[in-house]
Design a protein that fits this description.
173 residues; 4-stranded mixed sheet; 7 helices; disordered N terminus
Length: 173
């Protein structure tokens, strides 16, 4: 019986954090919140295009076409999701660009086990909600709504980040 090869993780969380930190230093965008993701995409030579999904593409939140240097974002998703998706696609650009003409895409299904998608999610979280700044804001407010608003992300994204950083859960809504 033949088995299919599973995608392999390319980067550890600490390597992703290092890549984000170096990118922020190189671009001078460190410490700006909410993070100017659109500006970073442009600095990397990519343009963003917002599409109205068809029946066939409605579950796709975003994609990056490496060969055309463009990021596609689902216009029907909530703004906070569009923002995270843009950062996620930037993650694919930085971490996975060597795939040539392959199109990376993010679906509305957030429960993924694909290591490449998990890496892009981790990249987006580090980019939009850097660990030190997130912990600082969490300690200051201890309120998921205020913290998510500060970073311009959804409450769900902020909750995942707080969980990943093992922050006290007693303050969640």
């Amino acid at each position: 019986m033949a088995t299919t090869a599973q995608p392999v993780k390319n980067y550890s969380d600490s390597e992703i954090k290092e890549k984000v930190n170096q990118l922020l230093l190189d671009t001078g965008l460190d410490g700006v919140f909410p993070f100017p993701a659109e500006r970073l995409a442009n600095m990397l030579g990519y343009s963003s295009h917002y599409f109205l999904p068809s029946e066939k593409t409605r579950s796709i939140s975003g994609a990056v076409e490496h060969n055309k240097n463009r990021i596609l974002i689902n216009k029907m998703d909530p703004l906070a999701r569009q923002f995270f998706t843009l950062a996620h696609e930037i993650g694919h650009i930085v971490l996975h660009k060597n795939k040539g003409n392959k199109i990376d895409f993010r679906t509305s299904l957030t429960d993924t086990t694909d290591p490449v998608e998990l890496e892009a999610n981790q990249f987006a979280a580090e980019l939009l909600m850097p660990e030190e700044e997130f912990k600082k804001k969490w300690k200051e407010h201890k309120d998921l709504e205020l913290v998510s608003a500060y970073f311009g992300v959804s409450i769900a994204a902020a909750k995942v980040r707080a969980d990943k950083l093992n922050l006290k859960k007693g303050f969640f809504i």
